[in-house]
Amino acid sequence: MKIARRKLLQTSAATAAAFSASAVLSSRGRAADPIKVASIHDLSGGLDIYGKPMVDALTLAVEETNAAGGLIGRQIKLISYDPQSNMQLYTQYAQDAALKEKVAVVHGGITSASREVIRPVLDRFKTLYFYNTQYEGGVCDRNQFDTGVTPAQTVQKLVPYSMKKWGKKVYIVAADYNYGQITSEWVKKYVKENGGETLATEFFPLDVTNFGPSIAKIQAAGPDFVWSALVGGAHISFYRQWAAAGMNKKIPMASTTFAVGNEHIVLSPDECNGMLICYNYFQDLKNPQNTAFVERFHKRFGADYPNITELAMGTWQGFQLWAEAVKKAGSIDRMKVIEALETPIGIDAPSGKVTIDPQTHHCILDVHIAEVRDKKLNVLEDFSQQPPADTAAVCNLKKNPNDKKQYVIKA
Amino acid sequence: MDLVLVLVIQVLFAMASLALISVGLAVIFGMMRVINLAHGEFLMLGGYSAIVANQHGVNLWIAMLVVAPIVVGAIGVLVERTLIRFLYGRMIDTMLATWGLSLFLIGLVTGIFGNTTVGISAPLGGMAIGNYRTSIYGLVVIAITVVLLVAIYLVLRHTRLGLFARGTMQNPNMAAALGLSPPRVYAVTFGVGAALSGLAGALIAPISGVFPTIGIAYIAKAFITVIGGGAAILSGTVTAAALFGAIQEVATYFTTPVFGVVITLAAAIVLIRLLPQGITGRFLKRWL
Lengths: 411, 288
Description:
The complex is a heterodimer of chains A (411) and B (288). Chain A is globular and about 65 Å long. Chain A has helices at 2-25, 48-67, 87-100, 112-124, 151-166, 178-193, 212-221, 236-244, 263-266, 269-272, 288-301, 310-329, 334-341, 389-392; strands spanning 35-40, 76-81, 105-108, 128-131, 139-141, 144-146, 169-175, 197-204, 225-229, 253-255, 276-279, 346-349, 352-357, 362-373, 376-386, 404-406. In chain A, helix 2 (48-67) runs parallel beside helix 12 and helix 12 crosses helix 13. Chain A contains 14 helices and 16 strands. With 288 residues, chain B is mainly alpha-helical. Chain B is built from twelve helices and two strands; from the N terminus they run H-H-H-H-E-E-H-H-H-H-H-H-H-H. A two-stranded antiparallel sheet of chain B has the order 1-2. The longest helix of chain B has 30 residues, at 2-31. The mean pLDDT of chain B is 88. The interface between A and B is large, with 44 and 47 residues.
């Protein structure tokens, strides 16, 4: 981590020097001004475990694009804000990016709360917005593109798989906010559809570290498996206490949040082996493009970089989709780029083919079920080109281009 | 029946861990009247000391029980000499200074270790009670806490060191007139408080993991326990930890974790309303 930061400083100094030099050289015309891209991701505070890999991915994408000659003949300048896991700073930085820096696009937001805070700001100031995190689905806004997976793409696949493997009785533990609450609704829906039963759902505030009573409660309920939608550093204690009681040998677990914050690296293999997860991307995906990507990533940020997360890949894909659209539109004008994205734009990413769905502004992409094994994520089954069916059920931007809300999809 | 036994163990563990995370604060805040907002960070440093020592090949138990308290105790003495000693008798100022210290420590540790959660697996594994399972490590933490509390009692009550400390806190001028050096006693006492926090942080690390901002999860609980306990540091901490630990554990089991926290806080408010001086302000007055 230390090395990566030092390198980052060196590179940003070098980039800054390069920019001032190019400013002197190209004093003839304004056309060579860099295109400004804003990043608003938590680099400190409780959510930094998610934010740092996302910013790293964005940094790599920008540097590679610049090295290849930039976009439409212009270099790209990344302006990175650290909102410190603080909602007020999100608003402030979104305004800064839109009004002061007049950026071409904002990539940012980790929790649903932070997204809902900056979405209206960027709408009002007509600044294009990419939200690159997996989330609960339902956002319908023509100014926004969502490159992360939604429950219809992951939960829908993992629930029947786990039920077939382990049994029909499920116990849900989830983080107590927007994401955990809505995700557990989806889990319940799919459990019911597959003829199973949800024994109980339990929510935990993000700073809870003692899970003793709940572990006793789960044992009393006797489920076939536990579904975890726990989030953040404090909730890692759950897996640890679960294993300390020897429960991981007795009741298996499935999750669509585990490993996104590198939990499988932090915990010992003994504490989390055998857990099932489902995402769009794993560092351990075996295809030539991903192998090359991982190599470039390690070359840039150090061979000891712990793990390239799903969220980092989402951010990388979000940037590439935007860049493709700018190339196609030949401009960074917001409406032109949106129309180009809706043509629709697609890219070949390390995670497979990723295409914008024009109706919802979400992505059609591959998902994979994997098993945690000795700090690696072993892919068990692939599902190719999954549409964002949940959001598509409520959102049609072709018909209602002026729609601007997040629907709570009734599961 | 098995379930009841598991629950009893859980309740005892909740009481023990609450007493454990609060006892260092009881010494620094209860005895020395220094509002130590960096208490959570002392716990965090204890966790890191144990983990780093263990990663460098030190036996886990020695890392937790010896290395962590020594390291954090030394940091405590350093903090007392460079910061706290200018602020005795000015409670609000100690609050501001230690708040700054806590931000500094979080920043420093993030710079050194990064912001990812680190941890060690809880040793000793689980054990079966009928159809239920619970962790053996939890029982060990309960036992260590009991031993620690008894040791603190013996030191304060029956050794010259304890007598010096209590006397100096009560009346530093008189202690000085009798030939003691209050600054030295203050430094040692603060160091002991910090060492106790370090030990607590180390013992909790295997069950909760450690990251730079984890102190925030503990500091409010520790303050509520110490304030609820009142003037007598030992009996206050123990009774308040027992009360709040039991309430939280039982409430969490029968409702939800969210209500568990709410009900515990409500109980703390009622307690402070009825007993503004804490439990030992009215009961157990003559105790330590």
